[in-house]
Amino acid sequence: MCHTRLARSQGPKQEDGDVSKRPKQANAVMSRLRRPAGRLRDLPIWSKLGLIMLVPTLATVIVGVNGLVDHINDANNAERTRNLAALSQSAGGLVDHLQNERAYGVMIYSSKGGTPGRTAAVKSYNDEHALVDAAKVPYAQQRQTLNDLPDNVNTLLVRLDNNLEDLPSVRSQVANANKQLTIDEVQDTYNKLINDLLNVGTPRPSSPPTRR
Description:
Elements: H1 2-42, H2 45-110, H3 116-143, H4 151-175, H5 183-200
Helix pairs in contact: 2-3, 2-5, 4-5
């Protein structure tokens, strides 16, 4: 009986001990949470002001960086636009002489071999080559300044590059009135070049060749 009473008396005391520990643990946690706040309260006023200004300052820096990136992109776009405008101007001069060369090429195929008309047409056609090649120089120089272009513009310019490279081969066939080429094919070859060049810039009206 004595042992039973002793055991019963010890049970409640143990439970009372557990309950008494809980407030102490909670107080310890709250104390740790209060420490940073207490340290902030103890800081000098200038330190508190610095912390207060930190967030808007960071926001200003972020906005400023984003604005700088936008300005850089705008500057790059403006530079690209200027370069394309200069290329368009160079393409216009090239178009004028290619139109003349096309007209003389058609005259070759329209005249009979061995006639004065064929001879005059071949001479005018060959003489125009130098003018076309001279007009290609500023175009090619300006073309080299362009990069990071939209896909449609880049596709157009690459096609122009390839067709201009093939032009000497076309000229040789046209000057000899090669029968493998028809008059329609001659016109189509030059039309592709001219139309692509016109698409680079402002289209120009077709002008008749200047006879010399």
